[in-house]
Amino acid sequence: MNLGSVRDYDELVRRLLVTIIVLIVYRLGSQLPLPGITPDALSQLRGAAPEHISILALGITPYITVLIFVELLKVFIAPLRRWELADPLNHLRLSRLVLILALLAASAQASGLVLAIEDVRGLVIEPGTEFRLTSIMILVAGTALVVWLADQITRHGLGSGSWILLIAPFVTAVPYKLAAWLNWPGYGVIVVFGLIVVLAFTLLILAAIIVLLQADGGPKELRKTSLWSVLLGGTAWPWLLILIALIAGGGVAGMQRWLDPSTLLSLVLLAGLVVVFTRLYVRSWRMSDASFALPLSPALLAGALAIITFADMMVAASFPGLVPLAGHSVITTVVALEILQRWWIPPFPMRSETTTPGA
User: Is the pLDDT of residue 194 over 80?
Assistant: First the structure.
């Protein structure tokens, strides 16, 4: 798209404003506590994520969870993907089913969250059935609102609203994580050097992702495959660790050892899952759509994604909560490139595509 024309520039500004307004609304809603929360207890939690007890505490997570589950079904059941691609109405029907399942998932998650909130002494003014039912309804309605906000971004904003809202907390946390390094105990030359090394390594990971996703101009098939392969592998990862821990035995200590995501074996298993799901995802699409093509061989793409994911999670595990975007580098980069490829300005030519990563 050529932004030299006033019309295109005006559209970009309008879409940017819509996206910013939606993100502001989402942020404000994340700061509004559930009714019935003790004000004094709430003030004590200010240093520890008040959004966890807000009306939008569930965020877009239930919707993304169902999307991942449905995508997993399409990977293993090729006729389901072919059915979806056969008619736009089928895609619409599946989208409605995803929304219904997301609200049901939100109900289950809200029930667990409300019970956990009640367990915190002094946090709820009047614990009981009324508080539980009211809070569950509000949290489910909050999820519905977030899905609607995401749809507004998709329709009138810069890109795919669901993914933008998903990565928004990661991106907004960047300055706070950088500030945490400056407040590190014993701050000095060693800490500064460590910060520089870690940030340089993180930038190297992001650069590798960009180079990979921009192969042959960065077609949408490459972005979709990269995003979903990492998401599906990351979703299956903890379940595989639980299965191995149950088989290996060893009591509580053995279970904790196997479920530690920072161990070398755990990271290798994650990389292996990314390889498996990359191959399965490409196979599923090729069985459903003859026009599906990648600029790289599936083996090369799977290997590159596995190495990047391994390095990304290794940084996240080595410096928990301190490295910006660590553990979320692939999805964040995919969403960012999706936006740039819709609105980029020469002299950096990219393919003109408007399809969202999850489409």
Answer: no
Predicted pLDDT at 193: 66
CA-nearest of 140, 116, 143 to 127 is: 116
123, 129, 132, 135 alpha-carbon torsion, rounded to 10°: -100
Those residues whose C-beta lies under 8 Å from the C-beta of residue 57, and which sit 6 or more positions away, are 30, 34, 51, 113, 139, 142
Contact 329, 206 (CB under 8 A): yes
Rounded distance between C-alpha atoms, residue 64 and residue 328, angstroms: 15
Provide the 8-state DSSP code for 346.
T
* HEC secondary structure over 8-68: HHHHHHHHHHHHHHHHHHHHHHCCCECCCECHHHHHHCCCCCHHHHECCCCCCHHHHHHHH
Q: Which two tokens stand for residue 110?
A: 């809200």
C-alpha torsion sign, points 39, 45, 47, 51: negative
> Do 42 and 61 contact (CB within 8 A), yes or no?
no
- How confident is the model at residue 327, as a pLDDT? 80
- 120, containing H or E segment: none
Gap between the Cα atoms of 352 and 71, Å rounded: 25
* Domain edges within the chain: 1-172, 173-359
- Cα 356 to Cα 151: distance, rounded to the nearest angstrom: 12
Q: Is 291 exposed, middle or buried (0-12, 13-18, 19+ CB in 10 A)?
A: exposed
d(CA 149, CA 151): 5
Q: Which CATH class is domain 1-172?
A: mainly alpha
pLDDT digits (tens, 9 = 90+) for 229-253: 999 999 999 888 888 888 877 666 6
- The residue among 169, 135, 170, 164 whose CA lies nearest residue 147 is 164
Q: What is the pTM of this model?
A: 0.83
